[in-house]
Amino acid sequence: MTDSSEQLRLMTFNIAHGRGLSLYQGFHSSRGITKNLDRIARIIRSHQPDIVALQEIDASSHWNGHINLLDYLQTETGYPHSVHGIHNRRDGRKPLAYGNAFLSKHPLKNWKVVPFGSKTLGEKGFLEACFDMNGTQIDVINLHLDFRSRRVRLRQIDQLLHSVHMRSLADPYHLPPIICGDFNTSSRSARDALHHLIQRSAGSEDYDYVPRRERTFPAHFPSRGLDFILLAEPFEAVSTNVVRSYASDHLPVVANLSFPKLTSAAIAPTTAS
Questions:
Q1: How far apart are CA 65 and CA 270, in angstroms?
Q2: Statement: 5-260 belongs to CATH 3.30.465.10
Q3: What residues contact 17, with CB distance under 8 A and at least 6 apart?
Q4: Using an 8 Å Cβ cutoff, are 192 and 24 in contact?
Q5: Using an 8 Å Cβ cutoff, are 211 and 233 in contact?
Q6: pLDDT the model gives residue 273
Q7: Measured distance CA(53)–CA(4) in Å, rounded
Q8: Of 24, 89, 197, 233, which alpha carbon lies 20 to 30 A from 262's?
């Protein structure tokens, strides 16, 4: 480890298929979806995160006038790198394709998409990507959990932790992944997904979460915090902001993170001579 530190600004934002505060994106014209996307793009440009983790973001789908939401936002925000992880895909007369995505100022080295199941509508999952940030490899997991069932959410967390564990076995000297997204449960639910993840990962990684008290849903009158960023050492949250806006039914979370600048030589163990 060196004495210098790096700074990373991360945003997580469930953009609700670009529908704004309405109940269903199919109620909107293509023009209405575009206006909502412009609002989202303004929020991103205003806060200038290094990495944006987006949930409920569509590729060409019948209910949004076949707009590719990620392409539109990337054009409007000017981010050089992106990846779209599709968890739902349905062909036919009314095609659907949506999931999670990243926009990034930093190059992506690799990524993987993991749907939790095989439904063509309403399926959740996570997108894991490795970013090259000034020579340090940063893994970020962009997560969206089921909203109906606590039991399903806990099972999804176990799937996620299995994937993290397998990655750690393959590369034990890699930094622990940052985990963010829409957990569809509040931090007050001690037996639900957020705390289940923290408890199940304890011992290997000691995760903590932000925001601690701010509420992110619903946007017009926030009563619950559903959207979180989880960090383990050496990452530290310097500041966190829940952005008041009406571009989605969720409020975006922006966190300024600090971590030591590491190299492979700094994190690999030394061998005694």
A1: 57
A2: no
A3: 25, 56, 57, 58, 63, 64, 69, 98
A4: no
A5: no
A6: 32
A7: 26
A8: 197
Q: How confident is the model at residue 3 (pLDDT cuts 50, 70, 90)?
A: low
| Distance from C-alpha of 151 to C-alpha of 119, rounded to nearest angstrom | 17
Mean pLDDT of 10-28: 94
pLDDT band, very low/low/confident/very high, at 169 (cuts 50, 70, 90)? confident
pTM of the predicted model as reported, rounded to 2 decimal places: 0.93
Q: pLDDT at position 203, please?
A: 79
Say yes or no to pLDDT of 196 above 70: yes
Percent of the chain scored above 90 by pLDDT? 83
Tokens representing 86?
A: 């599709």
- Residues β-bridged to residue 256: 9, 239
What is the per-residue pLDDT across 87-133, written as a single tens digit (0 to 9) for each?
Answer: 999 999 999 999 999 999 999 999 999 999 999 889 999 999 999 99
Do residues 195 and 188 lie in contact, with contact meaning Cβ atoms separated by under 8 Å? no
Encode the chain in three state secondary structure: CCCCEEEEEEEEEECHHHCCCCCCHHHCCHHHHHHHHHHHHHHHHHHCCCEEEEEEEECCCHHHCCCCHHHHHHHHHCCCEEEEEEEEEECCCCCEEEEEEEEECCCEEEEEEEECCCCCCCCCEEEEEEEEECCEEEEEEEEECCCCCHHHHHHHHHHHHHHHHHHHHHCCCCCCCEEEEECCCCCCCCCCHHHHHHHHHCCCCCCEEECCCCCCECCCCCCECCEEEEECCCCEEEEEEECCCCCCCCCCEEEEEEEECCCHHHHCCCCCC
